[in-house]
Design a protein that fits this description.
Pdz3 Domain; Thrombin, subunit H; 24 strands; alpha+beta; 6-stranded antiparallel beta barrel; 406 residues
Protein backbone atom coordinates (compact mmCIF):
# COMPACT_ATOMS: atom_id res chain seq x y z
CA UNK A 1 0.00 0.00 0.00
CA UNK A 2 1.40 3.32 -1.03
CA UNK A 3 2.22 6.04 1.48
CA UNK A 4 3.28 9.66 0.97
CA UNK A 5 6.73 9.24 2.58
CA UNK A 6 7.17 5.59 3.41
CA UNK A 7 6.45 2.09 2.24
CA UNK A 8 5.52 -0.67 4.63
CA UNK A 9 6.34 -4.24 3.66
CA UNK A 10 4.47 -7.05 5.27
CA UNK A 11 6.53 -10.16 5.94
CA UNK A 12 5.22 -13.52 6.93
CA UNK A 13 6.42 -15.10 10.12
CA UNK A 14 8.69 -18.13 9.62
CA UNK A 15 8.26 -21.16 11.76
CA UNK A 16 11.40 -22.46 13.46
CA UNK A 17 11.16 -25.68 15.46
CA UNK A 18 8.29 -25.64 17.97
CA UNK A 19 8.12 -21.87 18.13
CA UNK A 20 7.21 -19.19 15.63
CA UNK A 21 8.91 -15.83 15.57
CA UNK A 22 7.58 -12.72 13.92
CA UNK A 23 9.71 -10.17 12.16
CA UNK A 24 8.46 -7.01 10.53
CA UNK A 25 10.74 -4.91 8.35
CA UNK A 26 10.15 -1.27 7.61
CA UNK A 27 11.67 -0.08 4.35
CA UNK A 28 11.97 3.66 4.13
CA UNK A 29 11.67 5.50 0.85
CA UNK A 30 13.80 8.31 -0.42
CA UNK A 31 12.74 10.43 2.52
CA UNK A 32 14.89 8.23 4.79
CA UNK A 33 14.13 7.20 8.35
CA UNK A 34 12.81 10.61 9.37
CA UNK A 35 9.98 10.50 11.94
CA UNK A 36 7.64 12.27 9.54
CA UNK A 37 8.48 9.80 6.83
CA UNK A 38 5.95 7.37 8.27
CA UNK A 39 3.05 9.82 8.48
CA UNK A 40 0.43 10.29 5.83
CA UNK A 41 -1.94 13.08 6.84
CA UNK A 42 -2.10 11.73 10.39
CA UNK A 43 -3.51 8.36 9.39
CA UNK A 44 -2.64 4.94 10.76
CA UNK A 45 0.51 3.08 9.82
CA UNK A 46 -0.26 -0.64 9.49
CA UNK A 47 2.42 -3.05 10.58
CA UNK A 48 1.10 -6.57 10.15
CA UNK A 49 2.86 -9.90 10.00
CA UNK A 50 0.13 -11.87 8.26
CA UNK A 51 -1.29 -10.36 5.12
CA UNK A 52 -4.21 -12.76 5.32
CA UNK A 53 -5.12 -11.66 8.86
CA UNK A 54 -8.58 -10.27 9.33
CA UNK A 55 -8.13 -6.57 10.15
CA UNK A 56 -11.35 -6.56 12.14
CA UNK A 57 -10.17 -9.29 14.53
CA UNK A 58 -8.47 -6.98 17.04
CA UNK A 59 -10.33 -4.58 19.26
CA UNK A 60 -9.63 -1.06 18.07
CA UNK A 61 -8.28 1.16 20.82
CA UNK A 62 -7.83 4.90 21.11
CA UNK A 63 -4.79 5.05 23.37
CA UNK A 64 -2.02 4.19 20.90
CA UNK A 65 -1.21 0.50 20.56
CA UNK A 66 -4.20 -1.72 19.84
CA UNK A 67 -4.32 -5.24 21.26
CA UNK A 68 -5.62 -8.26 19.38
CA UNK A 69 -8.64 -10.05 20.80
CA UNK A 70 -7.64 -12.78 23.24
CA UNK A 71 -10.08 -15.14 21.58
CA UNK A 72 -8.12 -15.04 18.28
CA UNK A 73 -4.69 -15.76 19.73
CA UNK A 74 -3.10 -19.12 19.06
CA UNK A 75 0.18 -20.72 19.95
CA UNK A 76 1.53 -21.07 16.41
CA UNK A 77 1.29 -17.53 15.13
CA UNK A 78 1.47 -14.00 16.44
CA UNK A 79 -0.14 -10.83 15.23
CA UNK A 80 0.71 -7.23 16.00
CA UNK A 81 -2.29 -4.97 15.72
CA UNK A 82 -2.08 -1.63 13.89
CA UNK A 83 -0.05 1.11 15.58
CA UNK A 84 -1.99 4.33 15.95
CA UNK A 85 -0.03 7.54 15.70
CA UNK A 86 -1.41 10.35 17.88
CA UNK A 87 -2.77 12.99 15.51
CA UNK A 88 -0.89 16.26 15.54
CA UNK A 89 -2.57 19.60 15.89
CA UNK A 90 -2.30 22.14 13.06
CA UNK A 91 0.80 23.66 14.66
CA UNK A 92 2.51 20.26 14.85
CA UNK A 93 2.06 19.71 18.62
CA UNK A 94 0.11 16.96 20.36
CA UNK A 95 -2.49 17.37 23.08
CA UNK A 96 -0.91 17.45 26.54
CA UNK A 97 -3.67 15.21 27.93
CA UNK A 98 -2.80 12.50 25.39
CA UNK A 99 0.92 12.35 26.10
CA UNK A 100 0.57 12.28 29.90
CA UNK A 101 0.40 8.90 31.57
CA UNK A 102 -2.01 8.19 34.42
CA UNK A 103 0.60 8.89 37.12
CA UNK A 104 1.49 12.25 35.61
CA UNK A 105 -2.15 13.20 35.21
CA UNK A 106 -2.78 12.44 38.89
CA UNK A 107 0.15 14.59 40.04
CA UNK A 108 -0.62 17.43 37.64
CA UNK A 109 -4.30 17.39 38.62
CA UNK A 110 -3.49 17.54 42.33
CA UNK A 111 -1.01 20.40 41.87
CA UNK A 112 -3.38 22.41 39.68
CA UNK A 113 -6.09 21.98 42.29
CA UNK A 114 -4.12 22.92 45.41
CA UNK A 115 -1.27 25.02 43.97
CA UNK A 116 -3.00 28.44 44.02
CA UNK A 117 -3.74 28.01 47.76
CA UNK A 118 -0.10 27.34 48.75
CA UNK A 119 1.80 30.36 50.07
CA UNK A 120 5.30 31.37 51.04
CA UNK A 121 5.48 32.77 54.56
CA UNK A 122 7.89 35.60 55.34
CA UNK A 123 8.48 36.59 58.94
CA UNK A 124 9.27 40.30 59.04
CA UNK A 125 8.09 43.45 57.31
CA UNK A 126 7.26 44.08 53.67
CA UNK A 127 10.79 45.30 52.92
CA UNK A 128 12.35 42.14 54.30
CA UNK A 129 9.90 40.01 52.34
CA UNK A 130 10.79 41.86 49.13
CA UNK A 131 14.50 41.30 49.67
CA UNK A 132 14.30 37.71 50.86
CA UNK A 133 14.88 34.79 48.54
CA UNK A 134 12.14 32.39 49.56
CA UNK A 135 10.36 32.48 52.87
CA UNK A 136 10.67 31.15 56.37
CA UNK A 137 8.34 28.36 55.41
CA UNK A 138 5.21 27.37 53.56
CA UNK A 139 1.50 27.36 54.32
CA UNK A 140 -1.84 26.51 52.78
CA UNK A 141 -5.06 28.54 52.80
CA UNK A 142 -7.96 26.37 54.00
CA UNK A 143 -10.89 28.83 54.12
CA UNK A 144 -12.08 31.39 51.56
CA UNK A 145 -11.73 34.21 54.12
CA UNK A 146 -7.98 33.72 54.39
CA UNK A 147 -7.29 31.38 57.32
CA UNK A 148 -4.23 29.28 56.63
CA UNK A 149 -2.29 26.50 58.34
CA UNK A 150 1.45 26.27 58.78
CA UNK A 151 3.96 24.91 61.33
CA UNK A 152 4.28 26.61 64.69
CA UNK A 153 8.06 26.59 64.44
CA UNK A 154 7.81 28.74 61.28
CA UNK A 155 6.17 31.63 63.17
CA UNK A 156 7.16 30.89 66.76
CA UNK A 157 8.74 34.30 67.42
CA UNK A 158 6.38 36.62 65.54
CA UNK A 159 2.81 37.86 65.68
CA UNK A 160 2.72 39.17 62.10
CA UNK A 161 4.03 37.92 58.79
CA UNK A 162 3.59 38.29 55.06
CA UNK A 163 2.32 35.61 52.71
CA UNK A 164 3.05 35.45 48.98
CA UNK A 165 0.82 33.63 46.50
CA UNK A 166 1.85 31.97 43.25
CA UNK A 167 0.09 34.70 41.26
CA UNK A 168 2.54 37.27 42.65
CA UNK A 169 0.36 38.81 45.35
CA UNK A 170 1.98 39.50 48.72
CA UNK A 171 -0.32 40.41 51.61
CA UNK A 172 0.11 40.87 55.37
CA UNK A 173 -1.03 38.14 57.74
CA UNK A 174 -1.52 37.89 61.49
CA UNK A 175 -0.95 34.89 63.73
CA UNK A 176 -4.36 33.91 65.08
CA UNK A 177 -3.25 31.02 67.26
CA UNK A 178 -0.56 28.43 67.75
CA UNK A 179 -0.23 24.96 69.23
CA UNK A 180 3.36 23.91 69.96
CA UNK A 181 2.16 20.47 71.09
CA UNK A 182 1.25 19.61 67.47
CA UNK A 183 3.62 22.10 65.77
CA UNK A 184 0.69 23.82 64.07
CA UNK A 185 -0.26 27.49 63.80
CA UNK A 186 -3.16 29.35 62.23
CA UNK A 187 -2.66 32.65 60.38
CA UNK A 188 -5.12 34.91 58.61
CA UNK A 189 -4.16 36.62 55.38
CA UNK A 190 -5.50 40.15 55.09
CA UNK A 191 -7.26 39.65 51.77
CA UNK A 192 -10.58 38.39 50.42
CA UNK A 193 -11.73 35.92 47.76
CA UNK A 194 -8.61 33.81 48.15
CA UNK A 195 -8.10 30.39 46.60
CA UNK A 196 -8.24 27.68 49.25
CA UNK A 197 -7.69 23.96 49.64
CA UNK A 198 -9.89 21.37 51.31
CA UNK A 199 -8.82 19.37 54.35
CA UNK A 200 -9.58 15.68 54.03
CA UNK A 201 -12.53 15.02 56.33
CA UNK A 202 -11.38 11.55 57.38
CA UNK A 203 -8.04 9.81 57.52
CA UNK A 204 -8.53 7.41 54.61
CA UNK A 205 -4.88 7.12 53.60
CA UNK A 206 -3.36 3.74 52.80
CA UNK A 207 0.26 2.68 52.73
CA UNK A 208 1.52 2.93 49.16
CA UNK A 209 -0.93 5.67 48.19
CA UNK A 210 0.30 8.51 45.99
CA UNK A 211 0.88 11.81 47.80
CA UNK A 212 2.22 15.15 46.59
CA UNK A 213 4.09 17.77 48.62
CA UNK A 214 3.96 21.42 47.56
CA UNK A 215 6.08 24.12 49.16
CA UNK A 216 9.09 26.41 48.95
CA UNK A 217 12.19 24.37 49.83
CA UNK A 218 15.43 26.35 50.09
CA UNK A 219 13.72 29.40 48.61
CA UNK A 220 12.55 27.70 45.40
CA UNK A 221 8.92 28.72 45.32
CA UNK A 222 6.07 26.44 44.22
CA UNK A 223 8.19 23.31 44.21
CA UNK A 224 6.38 19.99 43.76
CA UNK A 225 7.58 16.56 44.81
CA UNK A 226 5.69 13.29 44.67
CA UNK A 227 5.99 10.09 46.64
CA UNK A 228 3.95 7.48 48.43
CA UNK A 229 2.71 6.95 51.97
CA UNK A 230 5.40 4.85 53.67
CA UNK A 231 3.68 4.27 57.01
CA UNK A 232 0.76 5.49 59.08
CA UNK A 233 0.34 6.03 62.80
CA UNK A 234 3.89 7.13 63.53
CA UNK A 235 4.63 9.16 66.66
CA UNK A 236 6.76 12.30 66.65
CA UNK A 237 7.80 14.35 69.66
CA UNK A 238 7.10 18.08 69.49
CA UNK A 239 9.35 20.84 70.79
CA UNK A 240 7.55 20.93 74.13
CA UNK A 241 8.05 17.21 74.67
CA UNK A 242 4.53 16.03 73.91
CA UNK A 243 3.97 13.17 71.54
CA UNK A 244 2.16 13.94 68.26
CA UNK A 245 0.09 10.90 67.31
CA UNK A 246 -0.97 9.61 63.91
CA UNK A 247 1.95 11.10 61.98
CA UNK A 248 2.03 10.28 58.25
CA UNK A 249 5.40 9.07 56.97
CA UNK A 250 5.96 9.53 53.23
CA UNK A 251 8.65 9.57 50.54
CA UNK A 252 7.92 12.95 48.88
CA UNK A 253 11.16 14.95 49.02
CA UNK A 254 11.19 17.62 51.75
CA UNK A 255 13.81 20.26 52.48
CA UNK A 256 14.08 23.30 54.77
CA UNK A 257 11.31 25.65 53.65
CA UNK A 258 8.78 22.86 53.02
CA UNK A 259 7.67 23.21 56.65
CA UNK A 260 3.98 24.05 56.86
CA UNK A 261 3.25 23.16 53.25
CA UNK A 262 0.46 20.74 52.36
CA UNK A 263 0.69 17.04 51.63
CA UNK A 264 -2.16 16.23 49.26
CA UNK A 265 -3.69 13.15 47.69
CA UNK A 266 -4.41 12.60 44.00
CA UNK A 267 -7.71 14.48 44.32
CA UNK A 268 -5.97 17.59 45.68
CA UNK A 269 -7.28 17.20 49.23
CA UNK A 270 -4.92 18.12 52.06
CA UNK A 271 -4.13 14.94 54.00
CA UNK A 272 -1.34 16.40 56.12
CA UNK A 273 0.83 19.40 56.95
CA UNK A 274 4.52 18.69 56.34
CA UNK A 275 6.48 19.22 59.51
CA UNK A 276 9.79 17.38 59.71
CA UNK A 277 12.52 15.39 58.03
CA UNK A 278 15.34 13.25 59.39
CA UNK A 279 18.72 14.82 58.71
CA UNK A 280 20.95 12.81 56.35
CA UNK A 281 18.06 10.48 55.48
CA UNK A 282 16.52 10.16 52.03
CA UNK A 283 12.86 9.60 51.32
CA UNK A 284 11.71 9.97 54.93
CA UNK A 285 9.35 12.87 55.56
CA UNK A 286 6.64 13.42 58.16
CA UNK A 287 3.33 15.26 58.12
CA UNK A 288 0.80 16.07 60.84
CA UNK A 289 -2.45 14.35 59.75
CA UNK A 290 -5.34 16.42 58.42
CA UNK A 291 -7.62 15.22 61.22
CA UNK A 292 -5.30 16.75 63.83
CA UNK A 293 -4.96 19.94 61.77
CA UNK A 294 -8.75 20.22 61.50
CA UNK A 295 -9.13 19.81 65.29
CA UNK A 296 -6.48 22.46 66.03
CA UNK A 297 -8.05 24.84 63.49
CA UNK A 298 -11.50 24.37 65.03
CA UNK A 299 -10.20 24.90 68.58
CA UNK A 300 -8.39 28.09 67.65
CA UNK A 301 -11.27 29.55 65.63
CA UNK A 302 -13.93 28.72 68.24
CA UNK A 303 -12.02 29.06 71.51
CA UNK A 304 -9.15 31.32 70.51
CA UNK A 305 -6.67 28.67 71.66
CA UNK A 306 -6.16 24.92 71.90
CA UNK A 307 -7.47 23.82 75.28
CA UNK A 308 -5.93 20.82 77.02
CA UNK A 309 -6.72 19.31 80.39
CA UNK A 310 -4.02 19.08 83.04
CA UNK A 311 -3.77 17.41 86.44
CA UNK A 312 -1.20 19.60 88.18
CA UNK A 313 1.37 16.89 88.85
CA UNK A 314 5.00 16.18 88.06
CA UNK A 315 5.48 12.62 86.78
CA UNK A 316 7.95 10.11 85.42
CA UNK A 317 7.76 6.63 83.88
CA UNK A 318 8.25 3.78 86.33
CA UNK A 319 8.47 -0.01 85.83
CA UNK A 320 6.26 -2.08 88.13
CA UNK A 321 7.33 -4.96 90.30
CA UNK A 322 5.97 -8.09 88.63
CA UNK A 323 4.86 -9.45 91.99
CA UNK A 324 2.70 -6.35 92.46
CA UNK A 325 1.30 -6.71 88.94
CA UNK A 326 0.24 -10.30 89.63
CA UNK A 327 -1.09 -9.58 93.11
CA UNK A 328 -3.33 -6.71 91.97
CA UNK A 329 -4.25 -8.21 88.58
CA UNK A 330 -2.89 -5.25 86.61
CA UNK A 331 -2.77 -5.25 82.80
CA UNK A 332 0.34 -3.07 82.51
CA UNK A 333 3.94 -3.56 83.62
CA UNK A 334 4.82 0.14 83.62
CA UNK A 335 3.09 3.09 85.28
CA UNK A 336 3.23 6.87 85.68
CA UNK A 337 4.73 7.78 89.04
CA UNK A 338 3.71 11.08 90.65
CA UNK A 339 6.86 12.88 91.80
CA UNK A 340 5.22 16.12 92.94
CA UNK A 341 2.06 18.19 92.74
CA UNK A 342 0.94 21.80 92.59
CA UNK A 343 -0.55 22.97 95.87
CA UNK A 344 -3.63 24.49 94.24
CA UNK A 345 -4.01 22.06 91.34
CA UNK A 346 -6.63 19.38 90.63
CA UNK A 347 -4.33 16.63 91.94
CA UNK A 348 -3.94 18.35 95.31
CA UNK A 349 -7.70 18.78 95.65
CA UNK A 350 -8.18 15.06 94.94
CA UNK A 351 -5.42 14.12 97.44
CA UNK A 352 -3.09 12.51 94.93
CA UNK A 353 0.28 12.04 96.59
CA UNK A 354 3.91 11.76 95.63
CA UNK A 355 4.71 8.10 95.05
CA UNK A 356 1.23 7.22 93.72
CA UNK A 357 1.36 5.17 90.50
CA UNK A 358 -1.19 5.94 87.77
CA UNK A 359 -2.05 2.73 85.90
CA UNK A 360 -5.33 3.72 84.25
CA UNK A 361 -7.67 6.55 83.28
CA UNK A 362 -11.41 5.80 83.05
CA UNK A 363 -10.79 2.05 82.69
CA UNK A 364 -8.20 2.64 79.94
CA UNK A 365 -4.76 1.22 80.87
CA UNK A 366 -1.92 3.75 81.09
CA UNK A 367 1.64 2.45 80.75
CA UNK A 368 3.58 5.71 80.54
CA UNK A 369 3.57 9.48 80.26
CA UNK A 370 2.82 9.42 76.54
CA UNK A 371 -0.29 7.32 77.13
CA UNK A 372 -1.44 9.74 79.84
CA UNK A 373 -0.89 12.73 77.55
CA UNK A 374 -2.74 10.95 74.76
CA UNK A 375 -5.76 10.43 76.98
CA UNK A 376 -5.79 13.96 78.36
CA UNK A 377 -5.02 15.81 75.10
CA UNK A 378 -8.66 15.92 73.98
CA UNK A 379 -10.40 15.37 77.29
CA UNK A 380 -13.10 18.04 77.76
CA UNK A 381 -11.88 20.62 80.26
CA UNK A 382 -14.05 20.65 83.39
CA UNK A 383 -15.28 17.07 82.92
CA UNK A 384 -14.60 14.64 85.77
CA UNK A 385 -12.46 11.58 85.19
CA UNK A 386 -11.39 8.61 87.28
CA UNK A 387 -7.77 7.70 87.85
CA UNK A 388 -6.79 4.15 88.70
CA UNK A 389 -3.76 4.37 90.98
CA UNK A 390 -1.60 2.06 93.06
CA UNK A 391 -0.64 3.43 96.49
CA UNK A 392 1.94 1.18 98.08
CA UNK A 393 0.16 -2.18 97.77
CA UNK A 394 -3.39 -0.90 97.38
CA UNK A 395 -5.40 -0.41 94.19
CA UNK A 396 -7.50 2.79 94.38
CA UNK A 397 -9.91 4.77 92.18
CA UNK A 398 -9.75 8.56 92.61
CA UNK A 399 -12.02 11.08 90.87
CA UNK A 400 -10.87 14.57 89.92
CA UNK A 401 -11.73 17.37 87.53
CA UNK A 402 -8.91 18.45 85.18
CA UNK A 403 -8.42 22.14 84.50
CA UNK A 404 -7.27 23.91 81.38
CA UNK A 405 -3.55 23.94 80.81
CA UNK A 406 -2.35 27.54 80.45
Amino acid sequence: MARAHAEVTRVRAHERGEFSHALADLEFGAAGPHPTGMLDENRLVDISLDETADSSGGGAGHDGLEHASAGRADTDSAQIAPLQVIPASPDGSTSSDEVLDAYSRAVVGAVEHVGPAVVSIYVGGAGEAARARGGAGSGVVVTPDGYLLTNEHVVQRVEEARVAFVDGRSVPAVVVGRDPATDLAVLRAQAVALPYATLASAQSLRVGQLVVAVGNPLGFESTVSAGVVSALGRSLRSRDGRLIEGIVQHTAALNPGNSGGPLVDARGRVVGINTAIIAMAQGIGFAVPATTAQWVLTEILTQGRVRRAYLGVGVRDRPLDLRLVRALGLTVTRAVEITGREEQGPAAEADLRAGDLIVGVDEVPVDGIDALHRHLSRWPVGTRLTLHIVRRTQSLKIELTPRELR
